[in-house]
Amino acid sequence: MIYYTDIEHSKNGILMILDLVKNFEKEGEIRFIEGIKRRGFTEYMIQQLICIVRERMNMTRRELFRLSEIALTFNKQWATDDNNCFHDANKMFWNIRSTLKGTKIIFKKFTPICRKPAPYQGYRPSVFINSTLAHGGCGLDMYGLSVYPDSVATLYAEMGAYFANVVAVLVLCHQELKRESEISKDADLCLQLLNEQCKTIVDDMKDVIGLMSKEQASKDELLVKSKNTGSLKKFAQEGFHKYNITSMKCFAASRAVEDGALLGLDAIESIYFADNPEKGKQAHEIMSNFDLYADKGRGDKMDSTSIIEFICMSGLDLKKGYSYMSESYHGKYILPQWKSVWARFSQFKHADPKAYKDGSLQQRLASDFEKRLDKRND
To answer: N vs C: which end of the chain shows fewer Cβ within 10 Å?
Structure first.
């Protein structure tokens, strides 16, 4: 009679293997010894199986490491490049194929040989039911592993370690599946994840030169789809884990540019001030007349202090604020190099490190620039 190793490609398939492995944790030694006796394992067979188990152990660990890395961000992102890693049964089982292959081999090795024909046509006996490691009564061995060669105890220990890794892989898959299902039912959480990922993407794109125009932004496929859906929250819920990172980047940038355009911001300001368009509008007005508020430095260069004060007032960090100015400033001065601006800011930091750590230094510098505005307006 031929035994089959089929596993249902669904959450039930995962739970079945988990139950069997956990059953081995409870009655492992008894079932292991029973299988050794029924199959009449020779020393050669034991050594061969030790090698197989160790090989599968390494493969399973690699799968665990890979899946663990994906799981770190999988359910924290609205769009991923691994959307189907856990959700799509065939894709998920493909990702854990080495883990499942190992369980099939081991359970088959511990399935007693039966030369009887199948009781009826279409009968498909499974190793996960007929193996001594799975189900059925097993007699308690009086002496345990102590009367067997050391290789038997080694095989038992290797199998225990391997099954522990199998549990880790399957529990991880089950948890991610469950969490994804919970998130997809929560429209508010889907919208939160969408907005958070848009903000992260836009922040990362602040150093990109040659940004899209409002006309280009309005044609983005996801942006159009979000408008046609009727509600951003509904779009967020329906689109959770449906799009990849590339599509998400285009959507986030297009959304930022279009929102900024409504306030009169250009594409650069829309990207840099995506999380605070009103501040971007203020920066736009200041930048168009920045020479009125700036001090002259050496030669034709602008004084670094003026730049630092403006950046602190804008709410951007120093590096991104300098990048924004280098792209948006078109006045009569020459901007000093980044290292000169950083060196000047470092002087402020070293002069009052406590104020820098608690943020009051940045607040003071921002206030100094606002005084420049007030003085000029007066």
So the answer is: C
Q: Please tell me the distance from the alpha carbon of residue 329 to that of residue 299, in angstroms, as a whole number.
A: 18
Identity of the residue numbered 303: D
Write down the residue that tokens 């994804």 correspond to.
180
Residue 301 pairs with which residues in a beta bridge? Answer: 334
In 356-365, which positions are buried (b, 16+ CB within 10 angstroms) versus exposed (e)?
A: beeeebbeeb
Sign of CA dihedral 166, 167, 173, 177: positive
Long-range contacts of 373-376 (CB under 8 A, 24+ apart): 373/286, 373/293, 376/292, 376/293
Q: Which two tokens stand for residue 76?
A: 């924290």
The better pLDDT of the pair 288, 139 is held by 288
Give, in order, the Cα–Cα distances in Å from 116 to each of 50, 110, 111, 112, 235: 30, 18, 14, 12, 58
Where do the domains of the chain lie? 11-184, 186-275, 289-378
Q: How far apart are CA 329 and CA 265, in angstroms?
A: 14
354 burial (CB, 10 Å; 0-12 / 13-18 / 19+) is exposed
- 11-39 and 97-109 helices cross at what angle (nearest 10)? 30
Could you report how far apart the first and last alpha carbons of the chain are, in Å?
A: 97
Question: Where is average pLDDT lowest: 46-50, 119-123, 298-302, 332-336?
Answer: 119-123
Distances (CA, A) of 104 to 56, 124, 263: 11, 15, 62
Beta strands, E only, the chain: none
- Amino acid, single-letter form, for residue 21: V
Task: Write the CB contacts of 285 (distance below 8 Å, at least 6 apart in sequence).
Answer: none
Range name among 74-78, 138-142, 227-231, 283-287 with the lowest pLDDT average: 138-142
> For position 245, what pLDDT does the model report?
84
pTM: 0.58
27-54 burial, b at 16+ Cβ within 10 Å, e below that, comes to: ebbbbbbbbbeeeebeeeebeebbebbe
| Residues 6+ positions from 25 with CB-CB distance below 8 Å | 160, 163
Banded model confidence at residue 326, pLDDT cuts 50, 70, 90:
confident
Average pLDDT on 327-352 reads 89
